[in-house]
Amino acid sequence: MSEFLxxxxxxxxxxxxxxxxxxxxxxxxNPPGQFYRECCELVAERLAPxxxxxxxxxxxxxxxxxxxxxxxxxxxxxxxxxxxxxVHFNSHIDVVEVGHGWTRAPFGGALEGDRxxxxxxxxxxxxxxxSIIAVEAFLEExxxxxxAIEISATADEETGGYGGxxxxxxxxxxxxxxxxxxxxxxxxxxxxxxxxxRGGWWAEIETHGEIAHGSMPFLGDCAIRHMGAVLDAFERDxxxxxxxRHTDMPVIPDGARQSTMNIxxxxxxxxxxxxxxxxxxAHCVPDSCRITVDRRFLIEEGIEAVEAEMRGLxxxxxxxxxxxxxSLREINRVLPSMTDEGAPVVQTVRAAIxxxxxxxxxxxxxPGSYDQKHIDRIGxxxxxxxxxxxxxxxxxxxxxxxxxxxxxxxxxxxGRTLERLLLPx
Length: 425
Ligand SMILES: [Zn+2]
Fold this sequence. Notes:
The chain is an alpha/beta fold. Helices cover 32% and strands 24% of the residues. It is elongated and about 80 Å long.
């Protein structure tokens, strides 16, 4: 059966190119979160004639949702005559800012050789196109299949997914009674199965001082020097401690197999002047300095320990450093997620990779989080993976591209997965 399916998919090369280009040409930049509705409608109009019921769902009240920038999501479902499992493909349609350094039009979708260029090409409009082509080829080959197929196109993954998958999960769309298998076509590579991701904890730390005239700093208390002591303690104690902790999760790349932390931002004293300003600085001792930290933690650590470790370090400074005072505000937290290697969707996609590509699948986990967290934690659906075409390292970079052959290869795997799950013998 598979050979016929694979032949159908190979014949859709021009179609997968055109669909990927059309998706890239809708500049669904996030922030601000624009053109979601247009992108959802493009997918809905394509799937409706193939027997899908399509539902546009706005995440009203979600962060960022306004009348100017509404958070629209599409859920398309096709129910077969015979009972069976539901297989759901979830793709986020938002893309990150363009940034500098492009040599192609970021929303042009230029095809050069085997590559399609554009913001979102690999992360992850190429994955969305591959899943649609896989489903269409499967339906042509097996109109009498069992169960149901869903394709969702969702908002805001790049900013946490609260206006997208989290909203759908809260509304019951990922209830395990309704959906049994979820594949998220993020760009992990066509022969790799991503089982989950590390956790994340974002916090703002502020050190407090006392304002005074800059010519007499001894009359005040410099909050930036206190922050310097915090950064020193990070270098001396925290970074070495994190580097010594390793996870059993197959996180890629290797550097992310340990605990990590990025310091996103630092602000202290008077606000920066605009570039080119000729204004001179006022003479003040800063009474506040703030940093934002992005702490990625391992499934073995636990979020309470991560927070306690940070507070312990800061309380240690408070006990030993004169006048040291701080406040800590949590900005966001994401718990790690890990699907069991024996889960049905994992083993089915693994077998499909062997069938379609003759390759042994590698199991990986993502250094950063993606929408699996909401499907797992809010939706309580554990049978979920990320699997899709593209090179992860190209995500968010200038001249982002996706390979046409990679998309077709992963469409073969997705189509074969549908055959294994929705064709009861
Ligand atoms: Zn993505």
